[in-house]
Design goal:
The protein has four helices and no strands. It has helices spanning 10-39, 43-48, 54-82, 90-110. The protein starts with 9 loop residues before the first helix and ends with a helix.
Length: 111
Amino acid sequence: MSPEEHRVPESFRSYEDGKHRRYNLLFSVNGGAFAIAKLFADQRAAAVLGHLSLLQLSVRMILITIVMVVDIFMFGEKMRKEYLPEAFGWQGKTVLILIGTLICSGWFLVA
């Protein structure tokens, strides 16, 4: 096989870059919010955080997580339908839904 045959298509790079940015945002936002939730263990921190309760934070983060999982799912489906028919198969969908479910479960436990 020639080096030309081993080149990654530009659409695959776009798919991987887009997926990476979206997953990175999902983990960064939730990681930061979990760190803030840990501050709530100290009652004095609530005054600094605007009297936001753990329940309020948890509900908001569950909603944000759901929106982000839906966005990643829609991005993957669009890329699969328009550019990469073999990308974002049942394995990728399963992993995405499991990650979203685990993060939301963590927020339920925080609440």
